[in-house]
Design a protein that fits this description.
The chain is of the alpha/beta class. It has eleven helices and twelve strands. Helices cover 31% and strands 21% of the residues. An eight-stranded mixed beta sheet has the order 6-7-8-3-9-10-12-11, sandwiched between helices.
């Protein structure tokens, strides 16, 4: 069996903020998350704002703090890796940000922005950089003649294509896509998603795809992991999880964005209230204060459910069975 390209085990990300006269309790942004991604595969992390998705993405790239866990990329443990080898390995792990405007230097011409990684890692001779930049721009659907333009001269979708080209310049194996189309118009979203799917097919890229829009997830992901308050509550093949959800939170997410092609015929699940404060999560199952499950009982208030494996999926709910 082929080893996964990226393997995350029991990852925890906690934040502790202090001031001169105050101290906030520890925020458990990520609280024991595990998953893996094979080469050429897309795993989508989905959930409401504040569920911990982006904290996972930053931790995977060593851009944020971790308090425990393991992140292994292509057989190398990242969380204990020294700065010099980490810098070399980071070339193979790139990120596409949510807001293409803030991700690009407004003073830098887009050709120079794309070329930056080539120059830092010395991947091609200096004389060949303009030709390589032109090839990358064509690959993402941009006119190479625009290399001298600045970001404000392009549309939002075009700027995101620049961000993708910049990430591809250093020949990565993994792209972390942090809500890469949420800031774009719907018609432009579809174009950028088609581009990402085509690039994956052509280059064999793996994607960790952060999203809250389940319609987007259906288009790009082979597998999905649903996060709630720092924990994965359901994961598995996209068709299984979104077509026949087993966790009440997954059902609620689907109910808020109905899909006419979904196979699930159960009554719609409606959530009440807002997610709890990750600095003071509920005891037991984190989801129990909002859970509409008819069998919810005292155990839900006191005992955190483990992930139950059901075929190719896993579900963290006391009232989910393998049947």
């Amino acid at each position: 069996m082929t080893a996964p390209l990226l393997e995350v085990r029991d990852l925890a990300v906690h934040y502790h903020t202090t001031g001169l006269f105050w101290s906030r309790p520890v925020v458990r942004a990520v609280d024991g998350v595990s998953f893996s991604i094979a080469a050429g595969e897309t795993l989508a992390l989905v959930g409401e704002s504040g569920s911990g998705k982006s904290s996972v993405a930053r931790a995977v790239l060593r851009l944020g703090p971790t308090i425990r866990g393991s992140v292994t990329f292509d057989g190398t443990e990242l969380l204990t890796l020294a700065a010099a080898p980490l810098r070399q390995l980071r070339r193979r792990m790139q990120i596409v940000f949510q807001d293409p405007s803030s991700a690009l230097n407004p003073r830098m011409r887009i050709g120079d922005a794309i070329a930056e990684g080539l120059e830092i890692h010395r991947l091609v001779p200096a004389r060949d950089i303009p030709r390589r930049v032109a090839m990358l721009m064509e690959e993402v659907g941009l006119d190479p003649a625009w290399a001298r333009k600045r970001p404000h001269e392009l549309s939002g979708g075009q700027r995101q294509r620049v961000g993708i080209a910049r990430a591809l310049a250093v020949e990565p194996a993994l792209l972390v896509c942090d809500e890469p189309v949420s800031a774009l118009d719907v018609s432009v979203q579809a174009q950028v998603l088609r581009l990402l799917v085509e690039l994956q097919r052509r280059r064999g890229l793996a994607y960790l795809f952060i999203a809250h829009d389940l319609g987007v997830v259906r288009q790009v992901a082979q597998r999905v992991a649903v996060m709630y308050l720092g924990r994965i509550v359901e994961s598995g093949p996209t068709e299984a999880v979104l077509g026949d959800p087993r966790h009440p939170y997954t059902r609620a997410l689907l109910a808020s964005a109905p899909d006419p092609d979904a196979q699930d015929t159960a009554p719609a699940t409606v959530l009440s209230g807002d997610p709890a404060d990750p600095a003071a999560p509920p005891t037991g199952c984190h989801f129990h204060p909002r859970c509409p499950h008819p069998l919810k009982d005292a155990r839900c208030h006191t005992e955190a459910p483990g992930l139950l494996t059901i075929g190719e999926r896993a579900v963290a709910c006391h009232h989910t069975t393998a049947a």
